[in-house]
Design a protein that fits this description.
136 residues; 5-stranded mixed β-sheet; 43% helix; nuclease; YqgF/RNaseH-like_dom; nuclease activity
């Protein structure tokens, strides 16, 4: 069984989370510059067995796609072309950034560490992945 890899796509940075091989535990992996994302993923799958990419789907409160969806669609097309053998699923990511920030507060991180946007992106990807695991 391979890992599940979640992506919290952003214009500048992208958070990435991964499961264990049994697909039970979601853990933050890293945050990468979005311009390097495809090459990072290509390299990662040469080292680890990945069964599925989960990509956050940002929606507004009225269930309409958010403005960033246009960028994500372009990324999805590039990802499918670059790594056609791994399926992609979308996961609703509403409120993950707010929940990530609250998680940082609840875990006692200092105000300075809570300003680390890369960490917020990584935690958001972990929440996307955990939501997916919980829904199965």
């Amino acid at each position: 069984m391979g890992r599940l890899l979640a992506i919290d796509y952003g214009k500048v940075r992208t958070g990435i989370a991964i499961t264990d091989e049994l697909q039970i535990i979601a853990s933050g992996l890293t945050t990468v510059l979005t311009k390097d994302l495809i090459s990072f993923l290509k390299d990662y799958i040469t080292k680890e067995n990945v069964d599925l990419f989960l990509v956050g789907e940002p929606k507004q409160m009225n269930n309409q796609p958010s403005e960033s969806e246009i960028l994500i669609i372009k990324f999805l097309e590039a990802l499918e072309k670059a790594i056609p053998n791994i399926p992609i699923e979308r996961v609703d990511e509403r409120f993950t950034s707010k929940m990530a920030f609250q998680t940082m507060i609840d875990s006692g991180l200092s105000k300075k560490k809570r300003q680390n946007k890369a960490l917020i992106d990584e935690i958001s990807a972990t929440l996307i992945l955990q939501n997916y695991l919980n829904s199965r």
